[in-house]
């Protein structure tokens, strides 16, 4: 038991010594949200973007490693009628839903030591990073099916209408960006990250479209971060 206490004490000491290096940064996010799924015939179709905003905080745990939390709000939507040249023209499905995401991520910044090192002759001002993590997405999809048909039948549309899918989804964000030090306190950044959501019901549509592939959603935009003492 005494050995266990010693190990825990050493671990806590190591964490604290690194934490003393770190700094907190906080600030707003503004950008766009994008859906990728059954109603988007082409990946990364930016014509379907909607406004998104939120708040983010970052802890500089070590030179190249940051820990981050996000609270992001946006809307995703799509309609078959926006793609008249595809075979979906006669289907006329559509949907819209808000997305609220709470997530925790780790950032790896290859040039972080050069950016954060104080007192050097040439402190780096621009630095790229990659990020990944886990979060929860809260949705409330409103799909529209113009021709539902016999409500007593077992066709795929009726099954989607009656599907008891969850509106809380596990999400895995993965992406990257670049940040720029404006002053010793203020930074701006641009980033984009996709979210795999482990569900084909972000849009409320699955069996009547493409049930073999799960949906994605994306957040991209700009951050303005303020470094705290």
Report on the structure:
Strand 6 and strand 7 form a beta hairpin. The protein is mainly β and 229 residues long. Strands 1-2-3-4-5-6-7-8 form an 8-stranded antiparallel β-barrel. The chain has 3 helices and 8 strands; from the N terminus they run αββββαβαβββ. The chain has helices spanning 2-19, 112-116, 156-162; strands at 24-36, 50-62, 65-79, 94-108, 126-139, 168-181, 186-196, 216-227.
Summarize the structure.
The protein is mainly beta. It has helices at 2-19, 112-116, 156-162; strands at residues 24-36, 50-62, 65-79, 94-108, 126-139, 168-181, 186-196, 216-227.
Observed structural traits:
single chain; 229 residues; mainly beta; eight-stranded antiparallel β-barrel; 13% helix; 47% strand
The secondary structure category is mainly beta
Q: Flag low-confidence runs.
A: 7-20
Helix content: 10-25%
- Biggest sheet, open or closed, and with what strands and sense? 8 strands, antiparallel, barrel
What is the terminal-to-terminal distance?
Answer: 38 Å
Q: Let me know the number of strands.
A: 8
| Coarse shape | elongated
Strand line-up in the sheet with most strands: 1-2-3-4-5-6-7-8
The run of helices and strands is HEEEEHEHEEE
Q: Note the total helix count.
A: 3
Q: Which whole number gives the mean pLDDT?
A: 85
The value of Rg in angstroms is 22 Å
Strand content bin: over 45%
């Amino acid at each position: 038991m005494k050995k266990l206490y010693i190990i825990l004490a050493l671990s806590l000491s190591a964490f604290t010594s690194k934490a003393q290096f770190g700094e907190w940064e906080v600030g707003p996010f503004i950008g766009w949200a994008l859906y990728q799924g059954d109603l988007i015939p082409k990946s990364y179709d930016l014509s379907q973007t909607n406004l998104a905003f939120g708040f983010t905080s970052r802890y500089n745990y070590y030179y190249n490693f940051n820990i981050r939390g996000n609270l992001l709000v946006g809307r995703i939507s799509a309609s078959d009628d926006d793609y008249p040249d595809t075979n979906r023209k006669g289907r006329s499905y559509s949907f819209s839903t808000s997305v609220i995401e709470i997530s925790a991520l780790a950032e790896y910044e290859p040039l972080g030591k050069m950016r954060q090192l104080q007192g050097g002759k040439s402190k780096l001002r621009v630095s790229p990073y990659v990020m990944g993590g886990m979060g929860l997405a809260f949705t409330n999809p409103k799909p529209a099916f113009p021709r539902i048909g016999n409500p007593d039948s077992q066709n795929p549309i009726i099954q989607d209408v009656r599907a008891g899918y969850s509106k809380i989804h596990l999400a895995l964000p993965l992406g990257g960006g670049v940040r720029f030090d404006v002053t010793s306190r203020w930074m701006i950044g641009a980033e984009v990250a996709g979210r795999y959501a482990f569900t084909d019901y972000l849009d409320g549509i699955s069996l009547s479209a493409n049930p073999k592939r799960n949906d994605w959603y994306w957040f991209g935009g700009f951050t303005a971060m303020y470094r705290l003492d």
